[in-house]
């Protein structure tokens, strides 16, 4: 019997998971809002649907697992708002539902450690919207829900190398500031491990072992490329976008013990140095 994954918002992280699932014989149905992506998805072995397609209920009837990657907006979580009735209808036949959230739901801890038991107190609008979305999914009775709180995502095509190469990178200094990160391939292997050992109701932090100041990552990228270190800029003197500035509003180290102890995950990239080095080699 085939295993079917219905993937809402089949983007960067979901595509990495698909690379793990397709060789195992999974069938994957992926949604997108972009008509141009339909052919591209099909070429990678995904059965694509345009967001809102009438065939999505049929996809639900086939699905054994569902992944929700699409983020919330001012109105709320688009997948929940549009399809919560279908989730309620098919909850009992699903083995696993995964919701990709963010470590932004924890809020600011002044550089201290947080884990999955830490009280949630998001300071940013983005974090507050994510927490509301988590609570919406948790409200569906009988749904085999697993929440994955992702740290800053990087990987092929997403990293500091381009900015360092073209001279636009800066080493932004904010005293005491650290960020946790996760390589997209580690997200994929955490999701696969959870699919193989469902534990409905569980929450997992997905990040590497080494929360680090952002300027250290930029410096290491320049070092790997053999280029001069980008200029240092004080955070208070930067002209960051509101989105970028919101990342600096919260400062915490995220504990990842649970993905290792419960899911048996051995991180492919336990720190940013391993991840960046691999990206450059590829």
Explain how this protein is built:
By secondary structure, the chain is of the alpha/beta class. The protein has a domain at 4-154 and 182-208 and 255-268: NAD(P)-binding Rossmann-like Domain (Rossmann fold), CATH 3.40.50. It is 37% helix and 18% strand. It has eleven helices and 13 strands. The chain has helices at residues 12-21, 37-43, 56-62, 78-90, 125-138, 161-166, 184-196, 214-225, 242-248, 257-261, 272-281, and strands at residues 4-8, 27-32, 47-50, 65-68, 96-102, 113-114, 145-150, 152-154, 171-173, 181-183, 203-206, 232-234, 253-254. A seven-stranded parallel β-sheet has the order 3-2-1-4-5-7-11, with helices on both faces. Strands 6-13 form a two-stranded parallel sheet. A two-stranded parallel ribbon has the order 8-10. Strand 2, helix 2 (37-43) and strand 3 form a beta-alpha-beta unit. Helix 1 (12-21) packs across helix 7 and helix 8 (214-225) packs parallel to helix 11 (272-281). The longest helix is centred in the middle third of the chain and has 14 residues, at 125-138.
């Amino acid at each position: 019997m085939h295993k079917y994954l219905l993937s809402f918002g089949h983007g960067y992280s979901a595509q990495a998971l698909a690379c793990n699932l397709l060789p195992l014989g999974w069938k994957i149905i992926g949604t997108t809002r972009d008509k141009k992506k339909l052919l591209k998805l099909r070429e990678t072995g995904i059965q694509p649907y345009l967001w809102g397609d009438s065939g999505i209920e049929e996809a639900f009837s086939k699905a054994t697992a569902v992944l929700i990657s699409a983020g919330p907006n001012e109105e709320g979580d688009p997948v929940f708002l549009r399809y919560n009735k279908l989730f309620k209808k098919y909850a009992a036949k699903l083995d696993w539902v995964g919701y990709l959230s963010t470590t932004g739901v924890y809020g600011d801890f002044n550089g201290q450690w947080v884990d999955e038991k830490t009280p949630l107190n998001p300071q940013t609008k983005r974090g507050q919207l994510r927490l509301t979305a988590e609570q919406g999914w948790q409200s569906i009775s009988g749904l085999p829900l697993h929440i994955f709180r992702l740290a800053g995502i990087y990987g092929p095509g997403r990293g500091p190398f381009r900015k360092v190469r073209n001279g636009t990178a800066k080493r932004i200094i904010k005293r005491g500031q650290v960020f946790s990160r996760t390589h997209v391939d580690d997200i994929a292997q955490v999701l696969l491990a959870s699919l193989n050992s469902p534990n409905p109701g569980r929450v997992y932090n997905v990040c590497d072992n080494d929360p680090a100041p952002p300027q250290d990552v930029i410096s290491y990228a320049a070092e790997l490329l053999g280029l001069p270190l980008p200029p240092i800029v004080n955070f208070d003197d930067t002209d960051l976008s509101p989105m970028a500035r919101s990342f600096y509003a919260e400062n915490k180290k995220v504990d990842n013990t649970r993905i290792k102890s419960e899911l048996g995950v051995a991180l492919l990239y336990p720190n940013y140095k391993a991840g960046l080095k691999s990206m450059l080699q590829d």
